[in-house]
Amino acid sequence: MILEWICIIVYSTSLVMILLYSFAQLNLLINYLYARKNVVTGPTFDLNNPNEVPYVTVQLPVYNEAYVMERLLNNIILLDYPQEKLEFQVLDDSTDETVETTRLHIEKLAATGIDIKHITRENRTGFKAGALKEGLVDAKGDFIAIFDADFLPQPDWLRKTVIHFKDPKIGVVQTRWAHLNRDYSILTRIQAFALDAHFTLEQVGRNSKGHFINFNGTAGMWRKETIIDAGNWEGDTLTEDLDLSYRAQLKDWKFKYLVDVTTPAELPIIISAARSQQFRWNKGGAENFRKMFKRVVSSSNIDFKTKLHGILHLLNSTMFLNILIVGILSIPMLYIKNEYAHLRMYFIVMSFFVISTIIFFVCYWFMYKNTHGGGFKSFISYIGMFFTFFSIAMGFSLHNSIAVIEGHIGKRSEFVRTPKFNLTAVSGNWKTNKYLKKKLSRNVIIEGILMCYFGFGMYSAFIVGDQGGDFGLFPFHLMLFIGFGFVFFRSITDKQ
């Protein structure tokens, strides 16, 4: 019975963590709905007054971007802003032929009078954080806009963002990501679904109440003074953006999130690219929890609710570990439930935790409705999208849990950037992308085993107990079976 009780305790603990996280999401939904009805404005620069036009440096950190570099440079120079107050820095850490092609392209742009510089380094010390820090040394601007290689800001982007820095307390302005290839595949649709939830529900919900939010690494602008005051960029985590965001807010800098200003970007279209991005984000989140937890808890200048939301924010990625634990233990729990009649009351209480799924379902519906519109047809479409998203997200739980564990124990790893595709540049054939990994992840075999394991869980529903089976966990095991099956088969077929 000892093993059974260990199983029950671990399973229950993970369920409680998921429930607490769902309550935090519900609170963010309430904040989000309130914020939509009560728009807060602040002082803004008058860009028609030359004396109020601030100097801006646009930083473009890039690394081996053969497929999107030309598109990036041609788009970024279309930004509508006084040329005498605008500087571009291409922070190029590339190690392939793009160093030379980028240099030639920049020379042509500079010859037209554009203030643009090509900055290279002898090594990638600090990775993206190191490049941003080095560029900052010579940056002329009082404000630093940052765009990754696959982001395509609209011409009026600078005018819509820099004006908010008239408030001297604001250190960062972040904009919402949009998606160039949302409808390319199921994989891109579920990524867009997850990101839309973050950029509406979470960012607005936190920012509207003064809770900590994060600069998302791109499509945002920093006050140069804020970066320096917060301790500058540091490369000791894989999410340097989250790290600097928390250090800045702990020093009382305010962040402003502009949900109505969108910046289109490309979503990973194959599962290996999505894996590398998810690994970096989730491991970085755990690393930042390890780095920032004590600072947040011990801070005397933030209130209890902001601390609580901050801790849960830093634990976002750890939810994957809780989901994996609940999934794996759910099958032994099914047998325990039907073997030990005296535990019946415990399992009745445990059924209450289905409320977590209901809360997520409600929260994400408001996000989906904001993006796709309301109505019955939209709601039916949402139901399918929600369960597809949840299934595939659970299918990523092994991969992401490994990232989370590595982050919590302090295991260091290289910054692996997500390969970009720009399908129009490669005639729609992503297989020609030379930056793709040719080797299968070693986790794929385990994911295939887990698919079979949850298939067994569905079979178990028919045979446990003496009352004709127990189907309470059947939908959960079906979603896990579909999720791990999707990740397993896509990982194999994307290599062919």
Gist?
By secondary structure, the chain is α/β, with parallel strands linked by helices. It has helices spanning 2-37, 69-76, 98-111, 127-138, 157-161, 186-207, 224-229, 240-250, 271-298, 304-314, 318-339, 344-350, 355-372, 376-395, 397-409, 443-463, 474-493; strands spanning 56-62, 86-92, 116-120, 143-146, 170-179, 220-223, 254-265.
Helix % is 55-70%
Q: What profile does the largest beta sheet have?
A: 7 strands, mixed
Please tell me the overall pLDDT.
93
Helix/sheet category: alpha/beta
**Cα end-to-end separation:** 48 Å
Order of strands, main sheet, comes to: 3-2-1-4-6-5-7
Give the uncertain stretches in residue-range form: none
**Radius of gyration from the alpha-carbon trace, in angstroms:** 24 Å
Q: How much β-strand is present in the residues? A: 5-15%
Order of helices and strands: HEHEHEHEHEHEHHEHHHHHHHHH
Shape: globular
**Total number of β-strand segments?**
7
Number of helices: 17
